[in-house]
Amino acid sequence: MNLNQITFSTMLILCSNCRWMDLGRQICGQILKFGFGSYVFVGSPFLDMYAKLGLIFDVKGYYDEMPERNVVMCNTIIIGLMWRGMVEESKRLFHGPKERDSISWTTMISGLMQNGMEREVVDMFREMILAGFTMDQFTFGSVLTACGSLLALGEGKQIHAYVIRTDHKDNVFVESALVDMYSKCKSIKYGETVFKRMTQKNVVSWTAMLVGYDQNGFSEEAVKIFFDMQRNGFEPDDFTLGRVISSCANLASLEEGAQFHCQALVSGLISFITVSNALITLYGKFGSMEDSYQLFVEMNTRDEVSWIALLTGYAQFGKANETIDLFERMLAIGLQ
After folding, report:
1. pTM of the predicted model as reported, rounded to 2 decimal places
2. Can you tell me the distance from the alpha carbon of 176 to that of 204, in angstroms, rounded to the nearest whole number?
3. Chain centre distance of CA 81
4. How distant is the alpha carbon of residue 115 from its chain centre?
5. CA-to-CA distance for 77 and 157, rounded, in angstroms?
6. Which of 21, 91, 257, 283 is the right S-S partner for 291, CB 3.0 to 4.6 Å?
7. For 180-210, what is each residue's pLDDT tens digit?
């Protein structure tokens, strides 16, 4: 078999898409052995595979040594660096001598958002506009999420106005991000308006509206929109079901909460920690501690929220012995 650039490039792309990391590692070894790593056509998928293997320092070294480099390779390195939280190194590469494209900007903006640097996300978005690059749904999604986290309603509205002038004004991903941003900024009516005008909706958009109502104290509306979602043929995921159960707890509606418990059992979503935690909290608020405890012991995995939810229920209803016992068990496994 004649090994060439096309063979290696095709195999690497296939391994990357199928997450065949062991085979990908072997192919990377063969590329180095036969000296194909210096070819631009092979270099991009080669660097991408090494980044996905977590070998980011090796990736950066190979990139620096390559005689020919392009913007695709640069973007691949930035993604890998951002995954590792190496923000300053990503910035140096981004602002280096190589050309940048829209993907470069979006990669940086998304990476900054992943690393909790919301203010820099908004600032870089402005720079991207001034530089004349085109945004995609991921650019808008990241910057709107940043605005929501910063409670930057004014900037969020400006970005909304910009979105309206683009081809993404009816994009379900962008519109869902707008609903989420307005909800976090305590402007639930704006979020509601965006939601009602959406020509297409998915589980993410319905969940964004439900969470928005719940976050802003409109628990009854949250439960109502959950039923609307199901009537429109959308089935909830674990996050959606967990949030509507939390809304029932806020409404002091044990009966509806118990119905959602049944739905969780039938759908299998009870196995998700988000759903079980919400149910433990719900039953705890009503003093149904036997139900709370039964859910707790049946969980395959627990997090700090699971323990605190049960502990709070015991303490709230004067179960002193159970509270002390559970607290000591928490300390024994290292939770404080």
Report:
1. 0.80
2. 7
3. 18
4. 12
5. 33
6. 283
7. 999 999 999 999 999 999 999 999 999 999 9
